[in-house]
């Protein structure tokens, strides 16, 4: 009997180590972000894939964000000493090891039980910035406690009542270094795929930042707060509200979702410290321009008076290079991170980030730019339209 048990334990250990090494091999055999996208789509539940990948309406903007990068071509330069590559840069007067960050994205535990802890630990390892979503499944406090050396910013959705300001204060207390206000969440985009699937947030996923507010509330009231509905979203904010928000925090204030030069100028006038060019990955309004196409008009309007960030459609390190060449100070990655998380948790996010970072280094090497701060508009041009 004892022998049988020992044999069973040995078989279990062997199987487990085989499984783990296979999983490891599998990640090592994924060579591009696209490989992760394919495996994620094949291996994760259909509604999770739909929730993470979908865009609004016909998803034209989601697709366009990606495709637009192909219209920008690189201008490599020769005979530059590229034996040492520097990725570090300075944002808000602070040194940052890499110009790559993670976008705020809701509910990471839907992709993997380790959720935000895993994504945060992965970006911490490469010294990038993590933006915690207002609708995260790990709370502001827990993330700060569990990944103490993380460089982190807090994303805020503008809600009725005092919740948004409360969350700014909570983030300040927990060592978050900037506040990222999403300016495009007056409503939820028309995500047809989720309607077709009758998508609902799984019972096992909670909006952890709301735990404080539902204590002692009835089930009905709690549902109103945490069902990820549009009930709470503010639609009445005008530019004066930016000034008000600025007065509520000593941290740099970043406006995420700016898409025109007019709004970039207003953002600066009303006190924003940085402009974050984003169309929410095409999940809100469809038929808008790709973010890489918007970037030049924003950079031109801002004229170096504040930092400019970008997200949307990043699939390659060369896309990051192109965004920096067109004037972005930092570039944030969205869905690829969730694909890495869904495929293999923290190890998967590590691999996605290392692919992007290595591709960026390779692009810098061939373009003769040994320092990210030496990448300029001279290294990237838009293809002339065909015909
Ligand atoms: C699943 C998912 C959830 C998101 N949740 C948020 C959010 O809570 N707050 C926010 O400001 N943006 C959110 N976004 C938008 C991202 O911050 C970012 O703008 C977008 O994903 C960038 O495009 P990419 O996914 O093509 O990289 C979300 C995006 C995705 C894909």
TrEMBL record:
Write down the required cofactor(s).
FMN
Q: What is the E.C. number?
A: 1.1.3.15
Q: Name one Pfam family in it.
A: FMN_dh
Task: Read off the PROSITE patterns from this record.
Answer: FMN_HYDROXY_ACID_DH_1, FMN_HYDROXY_ACID_DH_2
- Can the keyword Glycosyltransferase be found in this entry's annotation? no
TM segment ranges: none
Which part of the chain is the FMN hydroxy acid dehydrogenase domain? 25-385
The GO terms this record gives for MF are:
(S)-2-hydroxy-acid oxidase activity; FMN binding
CC terms in the record's Gene Ontology section: peroxisomal matrix
Locate the residues binding FMN.
104-106, 133, 155, 256, 278, 334-335
- InterPro entries found in the cross-reference section: Aldolase_TIM, Alpha-hydoxy_acid_DH_FMN, FMN-dep_DH, FMN_HAD, FMN_hydac_DH_AS
Residues holding glyoxylate: 51, 191, 280, 283
Keyword annotations of the record: Flavoprotein, FMN, Oxidoreductase
Q: Does the keyword Oxidoreductase apply?
A: yes
| Gene Ontology BP terms | fatty acid alpha-oxidation
Could you tell me what reaction this enzyme catalyses?
A: a (2S)-2-hydroxycarboxylate + O2 = a 2-oxocarboxylate + H2O2; 2-hydroxyoctanoate + O2 = 2-oxooctanoate + H2O2
Q: Which residues form the active site?
A: 280 (proton acceptor)
PANTHER family, A to Z: 2-HYDROXYACID OXIDASE 2, S -2-HYDROXY-ACID OXIDASE-RELATED
Q: Which family does it belong to?
A: Belongs to the FMN-dependent alpha-hydroxy acid dehydrogenase family.
Q: Please state what the protein is called.
A: (S)-2-hydroxy-acid oxidase
Can you name the source organism? Answer: Folsomia candida (Springtail)
């Amino acid at each position: 009997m004892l022998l049988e048990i020992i044999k069973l334990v040995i078989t279990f250990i062997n199987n487990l180590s085989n499984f783990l090494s296979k999983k490891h091999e599998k990640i090592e055999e994924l060579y591009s972000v696209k490989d992760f996208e394919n495996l994620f789509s094949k291996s994760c539940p259909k509604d999770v894939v739909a929730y993470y990948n979908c865009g609004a309406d016909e998803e034209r903007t989601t697709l366009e964000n990606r495709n637009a990068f192909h219209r920008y071509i690189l201008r490599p330069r020769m005979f530059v000493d590229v034996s040492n590559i520097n990725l570090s840069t300075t944002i808000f007067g602070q040194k940052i090891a890499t110009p790559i960050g993670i976008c705020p994205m809701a509910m990471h535990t839907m992709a993997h039980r380790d959720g935000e802890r895993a994504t945060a630990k992965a970006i911490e390892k490469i010294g990038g910035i993590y933006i915690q979503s207002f609708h995260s499944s790990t709370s502001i406090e827990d993330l700060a406690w569990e990944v103490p050396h993380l460089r982190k910013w807090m994303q805020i959705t503008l809600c009725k009542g005092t919740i948004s300001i409360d969350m700014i204060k909570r983030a300040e207390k927990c060592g978050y270094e900037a506040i990222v206000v999403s300016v495009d969440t007056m409503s939820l985009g028309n995500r047809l795929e989720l309607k077709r699937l009758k998508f609902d947030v799984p019972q096992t996923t909670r909006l952890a930042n709301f735990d404080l507010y539902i204590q002692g509330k009835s089930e009905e009231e709690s549902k109103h707060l945490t069902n990820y509905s549009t009930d709470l979203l503010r639609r009445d904010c005008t530019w004066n509200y930016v000034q008000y928000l600025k007065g509520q925090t000593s941290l740099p204030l970043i406006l995420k979702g700016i898409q025109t030069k007019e709004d970039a100028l207003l953002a600066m006038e009303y006190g924003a410290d940085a402009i974050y060019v984003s169309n929410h990955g095409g999940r809100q309004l469809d038929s808008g321009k790709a973010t890489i196409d918007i970037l030049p008009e924003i950079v031109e309007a801002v004229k170096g008076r504040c930092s400019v960030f970008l997200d949307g459609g990043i699939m390659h390190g060369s896309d990051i290079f192109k965004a920096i060449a067109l004037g972005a100070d930092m570039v944030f990655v969205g869905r690829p991170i969730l694909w890495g998380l869904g495929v293999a948790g923290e190890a998967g996010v590590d691999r996605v980030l290392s692919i992007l970072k290595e591709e960026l280094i390779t692009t810098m090497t061939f373009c003769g730019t040994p320092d990210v701060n030496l990448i300029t508009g001279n290294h990237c041009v838009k293809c002339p339209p065909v015909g």
